[in-house]
């Protein structure tokens, strides 16, 4: 997806890897790129974005971030 010839997504950072899992609580979740990006978590309620996880007050494994 492009906006005025510029890619809408510029980067992806994979956080958890098979050798090193990263777990976060909902209180430790921060916005990505001042709200311009999204991070995804694997939680007991399924795959959630950082905004949904904070709203549900649930933490989990931080999978990746897109901005």
Beta fraction of the residues? 35-45%
Question: Which of globular, elongated, flat, extended, rod-shaped describes the shape?
Answer: globular
Provide the low-confidence segments as ranges: none
CATH topology group: Dna Ligase, domain 1
Mean pLDDT: 93
Distance between the termini: 13 Å
Total count of domains: 1
Q: Sheet bearing the most strands, described?
A: 5 strands, antiparallel
Count of helix runs: 1
Number of strands: 7
Helix proportion of residues, in percent?
10-25%
Class inferred from helices and paired strands: mainly beta
Order of helices and strands: EEEEEEHE
Describe the secondary-structure layout.
Elements: E1 2-3, E2 6-7, E3 12-14, E4 23-24, E5 38-43, E6 46-49, H1 50-56, E7 60-66
Antiparallel strand pairs: 1-2, 3-7, 4-7, 5-6, 5-7
């Amino acid at each position: 997806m492009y906006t005025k010839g510029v890619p809408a997504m510029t980067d992806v950072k994979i956080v958890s890897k098979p050798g090193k899992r990263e777990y976060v609580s909902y209180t430790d979740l921060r916005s990505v790129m001042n709200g311009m990006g999204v991070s995804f978590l694997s939680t007991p309620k399924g795959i959630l974005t950082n905004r949904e996880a904070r709203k549900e007050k649930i933490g989990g494994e931080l999978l990746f971030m897109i901005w």
